[in-house]
Amino acid sequence: MRDRPRGTRELLAWTLVPKAALLLLLVAVGLRWSADERHVAPRAPGTPAAVWVLARGWDSNAYQRIALEGYYDEYSRNYPPGYPALIRAAMLLVPEPQVAAVLVSNLAALLALLVFARLARRLAGPDEDLLPAMLVCACLPGLLVWGTVAYSESCAILLGLLGWTAYLRAEAAGGMRRHAGWLLASGGLFGAAAMMRHVAGATLLGLGLVELARVVRAPRGARGRAAGEALAALATVPLLAVYFVWKFWSQDLAGVERDLWAMSFVPLGGPASLLEFTDPETVAVLFLTLPLWGLLGTGLARLDVRLLVIALVTLLMALSFTGIAAQSINRYAWSAWPLALGALRLRDRAATWALVAVLLLLSAWCGIGHVRGTLAL
Predict the structure, then answer these.
(1) Which of 42, 156, 221, 331 sits at a 20 to 30 Å CA gap from 356?
(2) Which residues of the chain fall below pLDDT 50?
(3) Which residues of 188-217 are buried (b: 16+ CB within 10 A; e: fewer)?
(4) pTM of the prediction?
C-alpha cells in the first residue's frame, strides 16, 4: 500500500496512457494500410484524416447518417436514437458529423473514467490504491476501443456508472428507507443507457432481480415500502417496454435483424453460432474473453453481489445473440460497466497487472480490425 493514495487527477493521467497509445496505433494503421471499402465510409469534407479513420467503420456510419437524416431505411432501424441525438447536438459546435461523432464518443469515455474513479473510491475506501482498477477500466475493450472510435458504447457505460452512483446515493439515506428521487434518477439513467445501445437494457433486468430479492428479504411490515422503492427504481421499464414494442412491431426490428444479420435470440447460443461461419481468430478471442470476464466476476462477488447479478445478466444477453451479432460479443461483454469494479477485490496484484496487459492487447486487436473494416463489428 502506498503511503499516500493517488488523487483523481493522477489516476486519470495514468488512464490516458493506454488511450493515447491505442489512438495513435489506430490512426497509424488506418492511414498506412488500406481498408475494406465495403465496411468503411468515405472521408467527409472538412474531416481531418486522423478523425476519419476513427469515424468511418461499420456502425459509425449508420449513427452519423441517422443524426443527419433520421431513420432512412430498414438497416438504420436496427439502431437506438440516443447516440445520433448526441452527435446532432455536438454538430452545433462542430458541423462535420464525423468529427462530432468522435468527439462525443471520446468525451463520454473520459467522463466515464472520472465517474468510475469517484465510484471506486467510494466502494474501496480512502486508503486503497485505485490505479490497478483504473487501468483495468481504461483497458476494457468496450471503453478503450469503442470509446475511441465513433461508437455508442462509451455513452452507455457512462450512463450505467452514473446510474449506479445515483442508486448508491439513494441508499445513503440510511436504514431500510431509500431516497425515492435518487431511485428514479438511477432508473432513468439506466433507461437512457438502453437508448444508446439496446443491450444496455439488460442492466434493468438485473436490477429487477436485485430489487425482487430485496422485497422478498424485507420484514413483513416493510415489504410495502420496499415494493414502492423497487417501483421507483424500475420506473423507466414500462417506457422501455413501450419503446421496444414499437421497435419490434412498427419498425419490424425482429425482421430487420433476421433478414439483414441472420440474427436470432437463442439462450447462450452465440458462441456456438460463431463456429459455423467466422474465422478461427474471432472464435479464439471470444473464448479468451470468457475466463478473463470470470476473473473480474469473482472480484465483483467479493465487492457487491448485486453488481455481479447485473453484470451476469448483461453477459447472458450478449452470449445469446446468434448470427452476425455474435461477432460483436466481445464488444457487448466488455461493455458491462460493473466489470472493472471487480478489480478492486482481486487479491493477486500480479494477476491484475497481467489482466491489464492482456486487455490492452485484446483492445489493439479489436481496434485494428475495426479501422480496417475487417472484423470487430
Answers:
(1) 156
(2) 1
(3) bbbbbbbbbbbbbbbbbbbbbebbeebbee
(4) 0.93
